[in-house]
Amino acid sequence: MSKIPIFFYIFSHPNIFSMKRTYYNSSLFLVLLLFSCSETDLIEIPLANHIQFFGFTLVDTAWDDPTDNEIKTNYIDEVSPFSNVADILVVNPTDNIINRMQAINNLQMKSILHLSELFFVQVGNGGTSGAIYDLRADYKDRWNTFRNTNHLQTNKNLIKALYIGEEPTWNSISYTKLKMATDYVKSTISSIPILIIEAYPAIGNLQIPDSVDWIGFNHYAIKDPKNDTTYKNEFNLLKSKLNGQQRLVLIMDTHYISTLHGDIGNITLNGMKEVAKSYFDLANAEPKVIGILGYFWPSGFDNSTSVGARNMPQTVKNEYIVLGKMITGKN
Fold first, then answer.
1. Residue 147 contacts by C-beta under 8 Å, 6 or more apart in sequence?
2. How far apart are CA 29 and CA 46, in angstroms?
3. First to last CA, the chain
4. Does residue 295 sit in the same domain as residue 171?
5. CB 3.0 to 4.6 Å from 283: which of 66, 157, 226, 289, for a disulfide?
6. In Å, how far from its chain's centre is CA 132?
7. Are residues 266 and 211 in the same domain?
């Protein structure tokens, strides 16, 4: 039997994290020793071994955080100490991302590739989301150009997943068209998992092709997703649609918009720490969850006032760091 980490000792002090690991021939418990200036608390948390990856979105997607004083669109150096995946945006078939994937790999992470632009295009307004998308007529040529440009068969060890479905049902992409895209990709490179993410209002109508490996959904400004009735119902509905081999990716809410999270969700900025804990508890309790992706890292996306994980209060960021190191095993 291979050795699996049992105990992670995380000594927590503002801005200081260290981790030690011991091993045993079974997966039992995670122990956090949290030290404050005046007291020590011992917390014992069961640590499941089905969660394989942890990371954030908008890490290498050409988004410049408008709240800082520099031009920066690649944040792999910031997330790598506590992540083992990072996303890359692909727009054109001729985009050569080999060096970017290698840079991520050099930091002990794998790449999740945003590929929807290669396959789908907006053809009109309307539908449930306000935008109607359809499969491009030349999607096979576009995929093959990208695949050959980046030598994906040779570089498949750099890639964690191919993200093809950008809220497909919500954006009026039919099951037939989604299946055509994912089936074709799977026929050309079967060893890389295919990921789709759906919007929560469309879960009921979602049909999942068998060629899709991992599925997630997004619903934000939920204070306690593990125990929230609406969120649990959505989660269980999505789970009911999986075949025996498919797995869930949990999309963790790691951004804050005051008019959404505050006014509607009744969540404070500091309260995002408890939100993260709840997402982890849900993921840890559900064996079908294979990974956690935080949406999102830099600020200013979706709303000019949004606060990303990068700019959360330090107590919230510390929670992300603890959870990330716990899952990835990084020191």
1. 153, 188, 189
2. 4
3. 24
4. yes
5. 289
6. 24
7. yes
Instruction: Based on the fold, state whether residues 197 and 305 are members of the same structural domain.
Output: yes
Q: With 50 as the cut, is the pLDDT of residue 35 above it?
A: no
Same-domain status, 64 and 34? no
Tell the burial category of 296 from Cβ atoms under 10 Å away from its Cβ (0-12, 13-18, 19+). buried
Instruction: Round to whole Å and give the CA distance between 315 and 309.
Output: 11
What pLDDT shows up at residue 45?
A: 57
What is the reported pTM?
A: 0.87
pLDDT at 165: 83
- Which of the 8 DSSP states describes residue 3? -
Region of 127 please: left (phi>0), alpha (psi -120 to 50) or beta.
left
Interior angle at CA 149, CA 87 and CA 294, nearest 5: 5
Looking at the structure, do residues 81 and 208 belong to the same domain, yes or no?
Answer: yes
Per-residue model confidence as pLDDT tens digits over 216-272? 999 999 999 999 999 999 999 999 999 999 999 999 999 999 999 999 999 999 999
Last residue of a domain, one of 29, 47, 65: 47
Residue 12 pLDDT:
33
- Interatomic CA distance for residues 52 and 288, integer angstroms: 11
In the chain, what percentage of residues exceed pLDDT 70? Answer: 86
Task: Report the number of distinct structural domains present in the chain.
Answer: 2
**What are 32's two structure tokens?**
């956090």
pLDDT tens, position by position, 6-31: 233 233 333 322 333 232 233 334 44
Token pair, residue 202, equals: 């469309």
Q: Which domain holds residue 284?
A: 48-328
Find out whether 109 and 158 touch, Cβ atoms under 8 Å: no
